[in-house]
Amino acid sequence: MELQQYLQDNQQRFLDELLDLLRIPSVSADPAYKDDVFKTATFIKDKLVAAGAENVEVCPTDGYPIVYADKIINPELPTVLVYGHYDVQPPDPLDLWESGPFDPIIKKTDAHPQGAIYARGACDDKGQAYMHIKAFEGMLATDNLPCNIKFMIEGEEEVGSNNLGPYCRANKERLACDMVLVSDTSIIANDVPSITVGLRGMSYIEVEVTGANRDLHSGVYGGAVANPINVLSKMIASMHDENNHITIPGFYDDVEIVSTEERAEMNKAPFSLDAYKNDLDIDDVHGEKGYTTLERTSIRPTLDCNGIWGGYIGEGAKTVLPSKAFAKISMRLVPNQSSEKITELFQKHFESIAPDSVKVKVHPHHGGEAAVTPTNTPEYQAAYNAMKETFGKAPLPMRSGGSIPIVALFEEVLGVKTVLMGFGLDSDAIHSPNEHYGLFNYYKGIETIPAFFRHYAALKQ
Ligand code: BES
Ligand code: MN
Ligand code: MN
Predict the structure, then answer these.
(1) Is residue 400 domain-shared with residue 439, that is, in the same domain?
(2) Which residue's CA is the closest to the ligand 1 atom numbered 1?
């Protein structure tokens, strides 16, 4: 049967299977979901087996397992390694979800007039990873797989992929390939396809500020003893100056200088500041002086507090000078910055600005390097050709602000480039309540992936 026909005939089943996958709450950050994360790995394994993959294995790690599978049709042909992740972000805050995060439903929206699947992980990354399994199934069933394929679907991406590096180093041979293909990013709009050519790196840190050795009555001691929440807030605020530059000494030393020409090119991408503000319900944007919104979210590094806590947050009022305050701080990094070096600079700076009235502890969580992918390669060209064919419009290269630290790792350990051919929209609310993924995007992905394989095989001949 023809591939298009096969994909068409099986649309409903492809959707039903994804909905089943979305019902398993594979939250890697929270140990309460441990059994479900393991269950999800098995689900992925079973679907790879059913699709016709070989050597399918749930590979244990020190954390959550990595699902491996392959189909080698001819060792002479090129090999594509498909990477994705089956773990998801925690669903909280739960009360802001309009439907259960693990009870997928389909709703129409302005951005998705054909309907979108609402569930945690719908877009990031279960929906996008599953497109590859279904595209593979279709290619194999209709005798349209033009090169070798390997799958590596992991369960710890959202918590920093700490066990993936060791796995890749230990399984270099098994993972040997000509390129890596990832769908875990976005396109500009459903009628403006794009290919991600840059990702930011990351340094993630938790800080603890301690004042007195115990909580104190805020009247008896207030005014005479440091309040760690006040101190921490001031320390965090001091890490940006009046131009929203980051004040950590040396922070910008290695930042790649992007040429005026490249910046001008970047700013030609379709983008409406008004639509952006409207979508987020904000009267103004905020960021580093001298850079546009597109630049601030791609070629410039950031420092953000992701969470802050301490003291009394229960019902009513309690008068207390807390003993401790905490914050989780992330820095998005750009090419040439080293996450290890930035983590050290942060630590040194944070300790140096702490007043003598408190003690501070800095706990690094995880880090990862930025990545830029070249556009003058057969793999990029294949993605370009495939999207042009299925969207009917040439895709634009675009740098993204998000991070997928394993992209730099694939280059280092496997010596191969990655193509970031994602299909989400920035408005799909990933990591946020009411995450969703368009049915148009799901099916467009399943259609575009086989086109990618066809073009890639042809270009590599
Ligand atoms: N899929 C995202 C990354 C992403 C999203 C890239 C949108 C480009 C566009 C990925 O799952 C993710 O969330 N990564 C984390 C990094 C990680 C170290 C926790 C991130 O960017 O916060
Ligand atoms: Mn992801
Ligand atoms: Mn994510």
Answers:
(1) yes
(2) 184
Nearest-angstrom CA–CA distance, 438 and 327: 34
* Residue 124 alpha carbon, nearest atom of ligand 1: 1
pLDDT digits (tens, 9 = 90+) for 391-418: 999 999 999 999 998 999 999 999 999 9
CATH code of the domain containing 251: 3.30.70.360
d(CA 329, CA 204): 6
Per-residue pLDDT of 76-85, as tens digits, reads: 999 999 999 9
1 has pLDDT over 90: no
For the chain, the domain total comes to 2
84 and 220 part of one domain: no
Mean pLDDT of 83-90: 98
CA distances from 34 to 65, 124, 142, 155, 160 (A): 11, 19, 37, 11, 16
Strands 194-199 and 216-217: unpaired
Query: For residue 68, is pLDDT > 80?
Result: yes
Q: Which long-range contacts (CB under 8 A, 24 or more apart) does 232-236 make?
A: 232/207, 232/308, 232/310, 232/325, 232/326, 232/327, 233/308, 235/209, 235/350, 235/353, 235/354, 236/305, 236/308, 236/327, 236/329
The separation between CA 398 and the C-alpha centre of its own chain, rounded to angstroms, equals 15
Number of Cβ within 10 Å of residue 42's Cβ equals 13
Hey, which of 87, 131, 182, 184 would you mutate to test ligand 1's pocket, going by the most ligand atoms within 8 Å of its Cβ?
Answer: 184
- Which amino acid belongs to residue 142? T
Instruction: Write b or e for each residue in 392-410: b if 16 or more Cβ atoms lie within 10 A of its Cβ, otherwise e.
Output: eeebbbbbbbbbbbbbbbb
* 26 and 70 assigned to the same domain: yes
Same-domain pairing of 172 and 43 = yes
Within a domain: 283: no
Q: Containing domain of residue 14, as a range?
A: 3-199+370-459
Rounded to the nearest integer, the mean pLDDT of the chain is 97
Contacts of 230 (CB under 8 A, 6+ apart): none
161, 343, 404: which to mutate for ligand 1, most atoms within 8 A of CB? 404
Angle between helices 126-141 and 439-459 (to 10 degrees): 50
* pTM metric for this prediction: 0.93
Closest CA to 156 of 67, 77, 281, 75: 67
CA-nearest residue, atom 19 of ligand 1 = 158
Instruction: Note the pLDDT tens digit of each residue in 248-277.
Output: 999 999 999 999 998 998 899 899 999 999
